[in-house]
TrEMBL record:
InterPro entries: FAD/NAD-bd_sf (IPR036188), GMC_OxRdtase (IPR012132), GMC_OxRdtase_N (IPR000172), GMC_OxRtase_C (IPR007867). PROSITE patterns: GMC_OXRED_2. The keyword Transmembrane helix does not apply. This is Choline dehydrogenase. The keyword Protein biosynthesis does not apply. Belongs to the GMC oxidoreductase family. Its cofactor is FAD.
């Protein structure tokens, strides 16, 4: 890795944010030795041991060492509650603290993006190669069990490892059978464009360790390249923009704080902002790119009036149903209830890299419909062999499972807006959950689907008792209100710098992710999604970065 103390701070490309997208872009752009690349990360190195042990997400989320520790504004749809809003603050970004679940979404998501942007590059068939390019799927290993369809939809030998989970639970196996009895088909693969079905999640792990994007794309490849520089623990304060000969603003670099001093780094070709759906709109607004009224409120000189910066926030709100099961049932609640149980869990991980310490936050997945009015799966389940009152609180003392369900395609829209000119002050994050009638109806209907699964014969032997929300809540109004009481984010914010057509006044970037009206500036992260994908958002963000890398390199040939 190049000497970070060099006096000349001139680069071809500057990437802001060493998270999911930024790590991949740094790898791809620096692969050409002619490109001098700077990657800037506000967080520190990913050398905290809990990042790498899968269950360590419990100790990374809401921990200032690894998380920005944002909170949402009090939300009317959540009956006035405010939620923690984790965002990764370390190399690897959210891939270092997330659930490690490998889900691409549905083909219709990407076909819709193509319609919204007028660019067929975003169609599913044209996105699939960008998913496959960096994938290393376990079923394509020597001796794997891939069928022809799997080989057509997955890759092998790429940087992004996808593996089976290293444990299973009888109670979850039986819940899956109950889901089948309730009309949800089994599937072997959620990632072929139609994710309807029930099965265990596949995870981004390697041999029982978390596989984050810093491991996948920065080490060892980038660390060996003389043309690559990494500055971690370096806070970008603003983007530097200057008018060109035609009075069009051009992004020329970044101003940042590094080792206690302000430094300006210059970009000859492009600055690429990969700070995520919260950090990217915040940085654009601080730099004078955003809604003119908001910038005037904070006395920030206007560079470009883009009213869509920070608008269109979308997220998946999960509604957790807890079922107490009969005494003697094996769940994590009971396994971890004694000193001996905890010791056994630790030893299994040390010796085999398996067991509960290798667990992703959720194990069993199901995609289905909340009602017959939907032609496609519109809800997703994250099912866990455990229960607790809220994230970070102790497990319940009785055996139980949690079946969390989220609306995949919410119609509610929120905002991200700066509160001051201080880049270290968190922005106001207002998801505006359950603000539409459709979202409230889907919330109520999805709780009924959960009950229908739990009532099936395959699950009857557990004598399930609905502890949360409680069988006394039955009407649409009751269930929608309860969703507001118990719903919480599943950590998938997108859409705040969305792409769109030239005549779309709220589009922040064009279909090639270039910021409208500002030269040499791109945004590449989940914020560019015009609509949220029908599933977890980490892997779609990698696909976006893969596609963007190809465009940037192609355009760079002529410079």
């Amino acid at each position: 890795m190049a000497d970070t103390q060099q006096q000349s701070h001139d680069y071809d490309y500057i990437i802001v944010g060493a998270g999911t997208a930024g790590c991949l872009l740094a790898n791809r752009l620096s692969a050409d030795p002619k490109n001098k690349v700077l990657l800037v990360e506000a967080g520190g190195r990913d050398n905290y041991h809990w990042i790498h042990i899968p269950v360590g997400y419990l100790y990374c989320i809401d921990n200032p060492r690894t998380d920005w520790c944002f909170r949402t504004e009090p939300d009317k749809g959540l009956n006035g509650r405010s939620l923690i809003y984790p965002r990764g603050k370390t190399l690897g970004g959210c891939s270092s603290i997330n659930g490690m679940l490998y889900i691409r979404g549905q083909a219709r998501d990407y076909d819709s993006w193509a319609e919204l942007t007028g660019d067929d590059a975003w169609r599913w068939d044209n996105c699939l190669p960008d998913f496959v390019k960096h994938e290393d799927h376990h079923r394509l290993d020597s001796g794997g069990d891939a069928d022809a369809a799997h080989r057509d939809h997955h890759g092998h030998g790429g940087e992004w490892r996808v593996e089976k989970q290293r444990l299973s639970w009888e109670v979850l196996d039986d819940f899956a059978t109950a889901a089948v009895e309730a009309g949800i088909p089994r599937t072997r693969d959620f990632n072929r464009g139609d994710n309807e079905g029930v099965d265990y999640f596949e995870v981004n792990q390697r041999s029982g360790w978390r596989w984050n994007t810093a491991k996948a794309f920065l080490r060892p490849a980038c660390s060996k390249r003389a043309n690559f520089t990494l500055w971690h623990s370096s806070q970008v304060l603003k983007l530097e923009c200057q008018p060109d000969e035609n009075a069009t603003p051009r992004c020329t670099g970044v101003r940042l704080e590094r080792q206690g001093e302000e430094v300006v780094a210059h970009a000859r070709r492009e600055v690429i902002v990969c700070a995520g759906a919260i950090g990217s709109p915040q940085l654009l607004q601080l730099s004078g790119i955003g809604p003119v009224d908001l910038l005037a409120e904070h006395a920030i000189p206007l560079v470009k009036n883009l009213p869509g910066v920070g608008e269109n926030l979308q997220d998946h709100l999960q509604i957790r149903s807890v079922y107490k099961v009969k005494t003697g049932s094996k769940t994590l609640n009971t396994m971890a209830s004694t000193w001996w149980g905890k010791t056994g869990i630790g030893l299994e991980y040390i010796l085999k890299r398996s067991g509960p310490m290798s667990m992703a936050p959720s194990q069993l997945c199901a995609f289905t419909r909340s009602s017959d009015e939907y032609r496609h799966p519109n809800i997703e389940y994250h099912v866990q062999p455990l229960s607790l009152e809220a994230f970070g609180q102790p497990l319940h003392t009785y055996p139980a499972i949690t079946a969390s369900v989220c609306n995949l395609n919410p119609t509610s829209r929120g905002t991200v807006r700066i509160k001051s000119r201080d880049p270290r002050q968190a922005p106001a994050i207002a998801p505006n959950y359950l603000s539409t009638e459709e979202d409230r109806r889907v919330a109520a209907d999805s709780l009924r689907v959960t009950r229908r699964i739990a009532e099936q014969p395959a699950f009857a032997k557990y004598e399930p008792e609905e502890v949360k929300p409680g069988v006394e809540y039955q009407s649409d109004d009751d269930l929608a209100r309860l969703a507001g009481d118990i719903g919480t984010t599943i950590f998938h914010p997108v859409g705040t710098t969305r792409m769109g057509r030239e005549n779309d006044p709220m589009a922040v970037v064009d279909s090639r992710l270039r910021v409208r009206g500002v030269k040499a500036l791109r945004v590449v992260d989940a914020g560019v999604m015009p609509t949220i994908t029908s599933g977890n958002t980490n892997s779609p963000t990698l696909m976006i970065a893969e596609k963007a890398a190809g465009w940037i390199l192609e355009e760079g040939k002529g410079q």
